[in-house]
Each structure stands twice: as structure tokens, then as C-alpha cells.
Amino acid sequence: MTLAPERWSSLAEDERLQPLLTPFIGFLDVTDPDFEPADNIDELLDEAATAIPRATIILRKIAQFSTAASAAGRRSKIGRNDPCPCGSGLKYKRCCGAARAPN
Asked: Which DSSP symbol is given to 83?
């Protein structure tokens, strides 16, 4: 959270993700001098600790999906050694790229 606060902030603003982020909140360092923990803080922390592994897996899948979606949008140029997008199984330079090469 400290390494990428802007990414976590955008996640925290999404109401659908609140149940996934809630378990982590109890383990954050609270610097507010007026903060007083709940009477059942130990019970709440135990519940949060048991929810963290599942929340971590789901957050990782969300991050992978987000990364894959942004990477797919970035790749617009086909490299000579990339597989040909026509599906032939050949390299682009030996297939559709060969027709474009100057003589």
C-alpha cells in the first residue's frame, strides 16, 4: 500500500471492493493520537486475519486482469519475429510481412 498509494486509493474508492480491503485496515499503523480501538479488537483482528488469504488471491486476480487489459491495449505494432496475426503459425516476416517487404 505504501509503494503504490495511488493504485490502492483507486481500489479503496470502489464500493464493490470494500469487503476485500476491509481485512487489511485493522493491521495498518494508526498515527492518529485520538484513535481508540474497539473493545473487541482482538476478535476483529482474528476475523480479519482469516479473511486476508482469500482477499489477497482475489486482489491478485484483479491486478492480473487489469495488467493484461492495459498490456493488450498497448501492443499495436507487430514485430518481424512475432507470430503472424493471421493465424498461419509462421513468423510475421515469413507470412503477411513478406508481402510488405520492399524488393
From this structure: B
In this structure, are residues 80 and 92 in contact, taking their beta carbons and an 8 Å threshold?
yes
Phi-psi map region of 89: left, alpha, beta (phi>0 left; psi -120 to 50 alpha):
left
Q: Which pLDDT does position 53 carry in this prediction? A: 92
Nearest to 92 by CA among 81, 100, 102, 76: 81
pTM score of the predicted model: 0.49
- How far apart (Å, rounded) are the C-alpha atoms in residues 19 and 76? 37
Contact 78, 97 (CB under 8 A): yes
3-state SS, residue 85: coil
As given in the structure block, the three cell numbers for residue 61 are 486476480
Is the Cβ–Cβ distance between 25 and 1 less than 8 Å? no
CB 95 within 8 A of CB 88: yes
User: 92 — alpha (psi -120 to 50), left (phi > 0) or beta?
Assistant: alpha
